[in-house]
Design goal:
alpha/beta; two-stranded antiparallel sheet; disordered C terminus; Rossmann fold; eight-stranded mixed beta sheet
Length: 310
């Protein structure tokens, strides 16, 4: 596996991203970067980004949640942000991403976690809570889903998957802008491009569309179906926080609200914005997270009596 590392100088002076870097090896010679803000002994809130962004996406949310007293951790998935980047598309798989995240969680010994996830962060995060329910206290999903069937627009999705895999041009900042209602500044767009100085550095971002919808013959397809069975036994708080102009995940929030017991009676909300609600409604998104973290779990749920065993 050939591993690329983006030079740190490309991240100098990014707007609204003053966070100190933290690194952890998730396998030999493969390090994951993460933001770690707020009191070290406070309740952990993990924020998972998706495609093709990185922890920079949460830059306006992190200070508001850390400032409210939580410990906020925002990793860059392998292949993204300041994390190392295997150079071949074949180096990336659903299972490897889960393994890398699990090793990061294990090394930091995190528990009682509030999980915040969006886009591909949801495809990974929902698998994590189903496989390790005792580790997580609550979930907040923003514009995310866990597919087990065909997308609503197979033609559009097939085009996007082919484009990501084969196009010699993969404009990360333009892709983020297409999913954002407000106009990003040139400096913000440059920040989204910063992790990817060459096309080879973009292998992780280019691989995600291929992995997001496993075929009916792929083992991930059956695992995702099993994950839904586990989610249908999830009784801890599960909050959806979608935006009103996201064509990618529209309707997935209602499916989660109906199928997941922990979603019943929660303060679900629809925010203003496009797919990347962290860019369009960061203050409101942070408020939802902070309000959720203030609510104590009932004693029986805190003891995991209603959850499937790990």
């Amino acid at each position: 596996m050939r591993i690329l590392r983006t030079d740190e100088t490309r991240f100098t002076g990014l707007p609204d991203y003053p966070f100190s870097p933290h690194y952890l090896d998730v396998q030999p010679n493969l390090r994951m970067h993460y933001v770690d803000e707020g009191p070290a002994d406070a309740h952990p809130v993990i924020m998972l980004h998706g495609e093709p962004s990185w922890s920079y996406l949460y830059r306006h949310v992190i200070p508001l949640v850390a400032g409210a007293g939580s410990r906020v951790l925002a990793p860059d998935l392998i292949g993204f942000g300041k994390s190392d980047k295997p150079a071949a598309l074949s180096d990336y798989s659903y299972e490897r991403h889960l393994l890398w995240l699990t090793r990061w969680l294990d090394a930091l010994e995190l528990k009682d976690i509030t999980l915040v996830c969006q886009n591909w962060g949801s495809l990974l995060g929902l698998r994590l809570i189903a496989e390790q329910p005792r580790r997580f206290a609550r979930v907040i999903v923003g514009n995310g889903l866990l597919p087990t069937g065909k997308p609503r627009s197979l033609t559009g999705y097939s085009w996007w998957r082919a484009f990501a895999a084969h196009s010699p041009w993969f404009p990360v900042s333009r892709i983020v802008q297409l999913g954002t209602s407000r106009l990003l500044s040139p400096q913000e767009r440059a920040a989204y491009e910063a992790p990817f100085p060459t096309l080879a550095h973009k292998a992780g971002a280019r691989a995600f569309p291929r992995l997001a919808l496993p075929s009916a013959r792929a083992p991930e397809h059956e695992i995702n179906k099993a994950t839904w069975l586990a989610l249908e036994r999830w009784h801890k708080p599960f909050i959806t926080c979608f935006s009103n102009r996201d064509p990618i995940t529209r309707g997935a929030d209602r499916t989660m609200q109906q199928r997941i017991p922990g979603a019943h009676g929660q303060p679900h909300i629809t925010l203003e914005g496009g797919h990347f609600l962290q860019e369009d409604s960061p203050q409101d998104f942070a408020r939802i997270i902070n309000d959720a973290c203030k609510v104590d779990l009932p004693a029986d749920l805190a003891a995991h009596r209603q959850l499937p065993t790990d």
